Amino acid sequence: MTLILARSAGFCYGVRRAVEMAEETARQGRPCVMLGSIIHNTDVIRRLEEQGLRTVERPEEVPAGCTVLIRSHGEGRAVHQLLADRGAEILDATCPNVTHIHKVVQQAEAQGRRPVIVGTPDHPEVLAIAGWCRSPAVVSGAEELERWLQEDPERRDFPLTFVSQTTSTRKIWDDCVKKAKKECTNAEFFDTICGATSKRQEEARQLAQTCGMMVVIGDRKSSNTRRLAEICREACPDVRLIERAADLDLSHMPRAERVGITAGASTPAWIIKEVYDKMS
Ligand code: F3S
Asked: Is 125 one of the annotated active-site residues of the chain?
């Protein structure tokens, strides 16, 4: 059996930056809390908590005067304001790609345009982007865009600015752009899909086409990991989504000649190595 590990497997730039900022703060011994899970990986969060960081779920729980780490998904304007009002020192680990989207939607509204965010409505990144707008629309794909346009036909002539959740698939975005170009008279488009995401997805797709089995490593809460598994399933008959090496049941291994391994953006190198070593 040949094992092939995707080159793009594991931490993306934005996640690595957030984890390094958290670790550096822990090393300095500064009192610091993380607002929400800074990445979608329980093992990484547990490690950070062992180093002295604590997770809080709501900005109201941040102790006054404490340092607070904002995750790579970012937070909306109201949360930043609330933290500032509490006297918290903000350590902003929002991925620069996400900060760019915040700027695009703010600029669009300043120009009298309406932002349309293509993404999963309840995903923290999408909620944060919407949190920098006064009146955003969020659509999960072309069908929902169609429904939104039908609800009020005048929307077809609104000045609309489309942005994408960074981890959306190219197909979802392309379908929305196609529909909007056909139906809307004043739409502009900012393709804000993260390059790291599309590269990882493309590599996984190509690898899956040549493998009898694919192992996708990542937290089940991570949407980019789940999407990665979906993409692999389109091309490969046997896809295992696992969180860590212990989830891999070696007694049920097929006789595939080639087995591919990939991992979501929140999967640390040590977990990938454990899986690789176990399979080797
Ligand atoms: Fe940033 Fe892309 Fe990662 S947006 S957090 S580098 S997936």
From this structure: yes
CB contact at 8 A, 98 and 14: yes
Q: ∠28-9-265 over CA atoms, to 5°?
A: 55
Cα dihedral across residues 56, 58, 64, 65: positive or negative: positive
Q: In this structure, how many other beta carbons lie within 10 angstroms of the beta carbon of residue 103?
A: 10
Taking Cα atoms as reference points, which of 129, 141, 132, 112 lies closest to residue 227? 141
- DSSP state, residue 111: T
SS3 content of the chain, % helix, strand, coil (to 5): 50, 20, 35
CA of 266 to the centre of ligand 1 (A): 10
Ligand 1 geometric centre to CA of 265 (Å): 8
Strand partners, 242: 217
Q: Ligand 1 in contact with 148 (CB < 6 A)?
A: no
Q: In what order do the strands lie in the sheet with 114-118?
A: 137-139, 114-118, 160-164, 187-190
Q: In angstroms, rounded to a whole number, what is the distance separating the alpha carbons of residues 152 and 57? A: 36
What are 253-279's pLDDT values in tens digits? Answer: 777 789 999 999 989 999 999 999 999
193 lines ligand 1 (CB under 6 A): no
CA-to-CA dists, residue 20 to 10, 57, 183, 247, angstroms: 15, 21, 45, 27
Nearest ligand 1 atom, CA 194: 2
Condensed to tens digits (0 to 9), the pLDDT of residues 90-138 reads 999 999 999 999 999 999 999 999 999 999 999 999 999 999 999 999 9
Q: What atom of ligand 1 comes closest to residue 166's alpha carbon?
A: 4
